[in-house]
Write a structure and sequence with these properties.
single chain
Length: 76
């Protein structure tokens, strides 16, 4: 089932499994930190992606013109 999960979720599941099995605080503390860092990285990536999408240059003819990718017929 983990092959269907995005990479960050798979990593999070792995960290959760380690925390469930290991009770040593010297192991658990760094794993908790890594799991939290993974979540924050995912959130920041989502924020950055939304920011980029919101600020794309809408006047860019090539990026926002669906007709640009339509193949031209011979003789047009």
């Amino acid at each position: 089932m983990t092959w269907m999960l995005p990479k960050w979720e798979c990593t999070s599941v792995t960290y959760d499994n380690i925390l469930r099995m290991v009770k040593d605080s010297e192991v658990c503390d760094p794993i908790r930190f890594l799991r939290e860092r993974e979540i924050v990285h995912f959130q920041r990536f989502g924020e950055a992606l939304r920011d980029v999408q919101d600020h794309l240059d809408s006047r860019n003819f090539y990026a926002f013109n669906p007709a640009f990718d339509v193949p031209q017929q011979p003789g047009d």
